[in-house]
Every structure is written in C-alpha cells, then in structure tokens.
Amino acid sequence: MQKARLTEQAPVFLVSNLMESVAYWQDSLGFKARLYGEPADFAILRRDNAFMMLSQKPADHEIVPHWKIKDKLWNAYFWVDDAKALFEEFSANGAKIDYGLCEQPYRVLEFGIQDPDGHDIAFGQDLE
Q1: Annotated domain spans of the chain
Q2: How far apart are CA 27 and CA 7, in angstroms?
C-alpha cells in the first residue's frame, strides 16, 4: 500500500487588519488572494506552490510575533529556488526587510521580512 503524501502547506496568521495584510502579501510579495466572508475576515494567498492563510483577529486579541517570545524565531519559513532574485524582487516592491540576504551556517542562503503585524517570515535556498 502506498503511503499518503503531503502535497502543500499553509501557515496561518492572525492579523490586525485583513485587507491591509492582503494588500501587503499581494503588492510586496507577489501572492494572489481569495477572500472569504462578508465582510471578508479570512484569506487564502498563493504564490507558485506556497500558500499563506490570514484570519482577522478577534477585537480583544493581542498579536505577539514569535521573535518577541524567543529571539530570532520566525513565524513562517518558505523554501525557495532563488533567494537572491526573490530578495531583489521583494526589496524593489517595498517589502519590510527584517534581515538581508546572508549565507547561514546551516548552508542556506536566506533573508527575512516582516508583515504589517511584525510576524517574521524567512525565505531560504538550500545550498547543499
């Protein structure tokens, strides 16, 4: 019997302003969005085979990005085939760069951005 395969994944972020976050992911990062709810309170974004889900936070909820709990911990990590080209694209599109392109000791060419709520998102290219 063949084992089931995982085919894709989607981190889910709570966001303080869904439409502002969707605009950022579309305009700065090149994702396409589908909105759900009336008014919209949930979005599924896609770029190539990478997905991201955003949900409007409850009014009384405080968003705390992982790096505020543990230093240098991301909220999401995307593997890419050309980190340099993606870094240049995101920079040109006004993405908030958290840290620039660098080769990590774990043999990954990587950079990080932040979304409007301060979530850290890294993009890395395996150099092995």
Answers
A1: 12-58+67-126
A2: 26
pTM of the predicted protein model: 0.94
Instruction: Give me the pLDDT at residue 51, please.
Output: 97
Dig out the tokens for 31 from the structure: 């994702």
pLDDT tens readout for residues 43-96: 999 999 999 999 999 999 999 999 999 999 999 999 999 999 999 999 999 999
* Sheet with 12-15, edge to edge strand ranges: 12-15, 50-56, 42-47, 32-36
CATH 3.40.640.10 for domain 12-58+67-126 = no
In 3-state terms, what secondary structure has residue 55? strand
Which of 71, 97, 69, 94 lies closest to 83, judged by CA? 97
Q: Using CB atoms within 10 A of its CB, is residue 11 exposed (0-12), middle (13-18) or buried (19+)? A: middle
Task: List, in sequence order, every beta strand (DSSP E) within 24-93.
Answer: 32-36, 42-47, 50-56, 76-79
Residues 50-60: tens digit of each pLDDT: 999 999 999 99
